Structure formats: C-alpha cells, structure tokens
C-alpha cells in the first residue's frame, strides 16, 4: 500500500560543470511517497517484471531497452524489492520492539521535471548523465547510501524519470519514516535543496506556498500520469456501429479524449504562470539593481563634493569622519566594519579586563582561602557583584575603544547593550572557574565531581 506524502550533484569524487541558467526554467519534480506493504507492486513496476505488465501498461515496449537499473554496492538491486526491504531491515534495525505490520517500511520517490525540459535534457547525453548522477548524490546525502534499494531510470514512458526506493532507517538503527521525512517545514526545505541541485540542468522549484492546485509537485505528478494514460486519445474517436449499440463505451472514449485535452490546457496555463512569475522576479531584481546603482552614484558624488570643498589642506578621512560625517552609504558600511572590528577586539581584550576587575574586586591576587574565608567569599560573589564588575569592565573596555578608534559608542544603543551582556557572561564564567579552582584546592569536591577547569 502506498499513500501520498507532500513532498554537488554527482557520484563521489566527481565534479560537474554548472551551466548558466536558462532564461526560462522548467520545474524540478521530487515526489516522495511512503509504503507500508511488501513493495511488490511498485517493485514490479520499476523492474518491469515479466508477467506483471499490468503494473506498467503505458510503456513503449520499443524503448524498454533504454531503461537503466543502476547497480548498487550493497547488491540490493539484484534482489526483488520485497526481499531487499526485508534484508535491509534485518541488517540495519537495532530496535528492541518488534516492527508493526502497518509500519512504513520503504519510501518510494520519483525524480523528473517538466516534460519539455526533460525531453531536451535527454537529448544531451553528457548533461543527462550528470542529471542522473546529481539525483543519486542527492538521495545518498538525504537518506543514506546503505538504505537505497533501487535507483532506476525509465525512458519507456512519456517523460524521462527516475524511481528510487529507500528504507527509512535512522543512523541509530530505528525504522522511522516520520523522522526521516520530517514535518511540513522539513519537506519544504528538502524540496528547496533539491531545486538547488537541479538548477544547473535548467530546472527550478515550483511556486512555494501557492494555494493554486496546479502549482504543486504532487499535482504535476498526477497530471503526468493522466497524460500518460490519455496520450493516444487526443483525437475524437470515430462513432462505429457497435458504439451505437453500446454508447457507454463511446462516451468513455470521448471523456478520455476531453481529459487529455484538458491536461494539455492545464500544462499550457502552468507554463504561462511559471514564465510570468520569472518575469516578475527578473523585473524586481532589475529595479533593485537600478536603485542601488543610483544610491551608490549619489554617495560617490557626495564624497567627491566633500573632497572638492576641503581646499588645499585636503580631507582628513579618519574614523571620526567615516562614522559621523560621511554620506549615508559610506557611513553604513563604516558602521558595519566598525562593529565587526570591535567584536573581534572584545574577544581579545574584554575577558582579560573582566578577569582583572574580578580579582581586584575580591582581592584575589595571590590570595589563599581557608574554608571559613571561602564561605564569606561565596556570599560576596553574588549577582549584584557580577553586575558591578561587568559595568566596571565595560567602562574600561570602552575607554580602550575610544583610544583605539577615536569614537565613543552611544550608551543605551543595541551595540552598547550587546557588549554589556558579553561582559556579564564573561564575569559569570570567571566566577564559575574561580569557585571550582578554590573548591579543588580546599578538597571540598569529591574526586569524581571535579572538573578539569583552570584559571
């Protein structure tokens, strides 16, 4: 039984050339489903098992030889799918509970794309081979190489596509399709990752979050299936004498023809919608670039104007000018660089300053505690003292900033408060290490509880 789930590119050690994106891109389709049965039906369909032609009634027998059932290192491709599922679970399952009969034992996935784009892709042998490798690499990374039971290319149906079967075993040996597939957000993020892998092949993600029923990957798979079932019924059937006697058969044939035509219309609408969305995105990007270009041009003109007005003495372009007097674009860039530099400086200087202020506040320089003195120290070293030490450390650090860059950070700003919070964290860390050090010296901690912390 199979029920629906919503749903760099290569073999190990190889690299692929990333082609430039086409002006218009088709959809990349990744459609996973969960299976709780033996997998016999989908296995016969993928393997084209003789005697089970009812599982693949719409193939072109003349192209059956173009299909590829890729060999897997674990040899699972040589077993029937039910045997492979059973063997992989026996090898990899480490759970103590017996597996429920209705548990999801395998995931069935289809990888393809818009029919027109897949047809063009298949016409380029090297690029088509790279597409297959990219899909294999994606499956290995997302679901684990050892869990793959089938990786098969089908060329004998309307649109080239890949079938993959994996067993949803976690790294710690549990059988959990829920954990492997994740929630709605995880499924969407996996679709995003797949779309990124497909970009070099001219395939993109569908309209994310669209409520239109014709924009989802699941709908597209259904439409492909209906199109396959109706591909030879695009013309109105001839009304024969038998049809007059048994009109219900003729009615059924007409409905199939209408269904095929409707599918073609929906495909055209989908393509037009996709192209319209791409044009909209391109126009928005163009507008943004043009706006940024105007902004940067004005900033450069402002700088040039200030240089012209500076006279013979020239312009002293120091940090004070960059942060206080520069045009908006330069000022914003300078602020960002300044914040980064101060944060780097804090990693080097703020903690040593906090250590010195902590030692000074508690008079810890070369001091040895008795147990009674340590009890007093414990009472004194409270959150209120931490706040005082952090404030003193922060003030001293800001003095060093002003001396180094000639700029003072505004008290109460988010950046100021962020440094203040960092100082408090450093003081708490120093306090924890100091207490552990003293307790170790006094023998107050049992040996098994002592941590290797040092000043």
Q: What keywords describe this structure?
A:
BirA Bifunctional Protein, domain 2, 455 residues, single chain, alpha+beta, disordered N terminus
Describe this entry's structure for a reader.
With 455 residues, this protein is α+β, with helices and mostly antiparallel strands. The chain folds into two domains: 207 residues, BirA Bifunctional Protein, domain 2, CATH 3.30.930.30; 122 residues, no CATH class. The protein contains 14 helices and seven strands. Strands 1, 2, 3, 4, 5, 6 and 7 form a seven-stranded mixed sheet that branches. Strand 5 and strand 6 form a beta hairpin. Helix 7 packs antiparallel against helix 9, helix 10 crosses helix 11 and helix 11 runs parallel beside helix 14. The N terminus and C terminus are likely disordered.
């Amino acid at each position: 039984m199979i029920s629906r789930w919503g749903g760099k590119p290569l073999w190990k050690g190889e690299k692929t050339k990333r082609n430039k994106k086409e002006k218009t891109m088709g959809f990349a389709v990744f459609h996973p489903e969960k299976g709780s049965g033996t997998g016999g039906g989908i296995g016969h369909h993928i393997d084209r098992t003789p005697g089970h032609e009812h599982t693949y009634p719409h193939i072109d027998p003349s192209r059956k030889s173009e299909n590829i059932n890729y060999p897997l290192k674990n040899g699972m491709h040589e077993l029937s799918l039910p045997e492979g599922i059973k063997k992989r679970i026996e090898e990899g399952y480490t759970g103590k509970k017996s597996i429920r009969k209705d548990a999801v034992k395998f995931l069935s996935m289809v990888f393809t794309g818009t029919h027109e784009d897949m047809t063009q892709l298949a016409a380029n042998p090297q690029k088509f081979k790279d597409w297959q490798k990219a899909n294999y690499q994606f499956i290995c990374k997302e679901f684990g190489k050892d869990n793959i039971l089938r990786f098969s290319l089908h060329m004998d149906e309307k649109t080239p596509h890949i079938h993959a079967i994996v067993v949803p075993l976690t790294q710690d040996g549990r059988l959990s399709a829920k954990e492997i597939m994740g929630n709605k957000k995880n499924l969407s993020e996996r679709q995003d990752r797949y779309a990124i892998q497909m970009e070099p092949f001219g395939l993109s993600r569908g309209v994310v979050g669209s409520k239109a029923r014709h924009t989802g990957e699941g709908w597209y798979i259904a439409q492909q299936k209906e199109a396959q079932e109706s591909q030879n019924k695009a013309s109105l059937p001839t009304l024969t004498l038998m049809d007059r006697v048994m009109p219900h058969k003729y009615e059924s044939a007409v409905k199939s023809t209408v269904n095929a035509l409707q599918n073609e219309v929906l495909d055209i609408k989908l393509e037009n919608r996709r192209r319209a969305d791409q044009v909209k995105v391109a126009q928005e990007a163009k507008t943004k670039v043009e706006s940024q270009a105007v902004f940067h041009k004005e900033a450069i003109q402002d700088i040039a104007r200030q240089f012209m007005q500076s006279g013979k003495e020239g312009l002293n372009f120091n940090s004070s000018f960059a942060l206080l007097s520069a045009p908006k674009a330069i000022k914003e860039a300078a602020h960002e660089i300044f914040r980064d530099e101060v944060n780097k400086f804090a990693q080097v200087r703020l903690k040593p300053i906090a250590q010195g202020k902590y030692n000074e506040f508690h008079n810890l320089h070369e001091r040895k505690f008795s147990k009674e003195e340590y009890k007093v120290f414990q009472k004194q070293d409270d959150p209120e003292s931490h706040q005082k030490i952090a404030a003193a450390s922060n003030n001293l650090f800001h003095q060093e900033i002003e001396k180094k860059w000639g700029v003072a950070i505004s008290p109460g700003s988010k950046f100021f408060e962020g440094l203040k919070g960092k100082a408090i964290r450093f003081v708490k860390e120093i306090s924890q290490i100091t207490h552990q050090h003293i307790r170790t010296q006094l023998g107050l901690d049992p040996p098994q509880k002592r941590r290797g912390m040092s000043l």
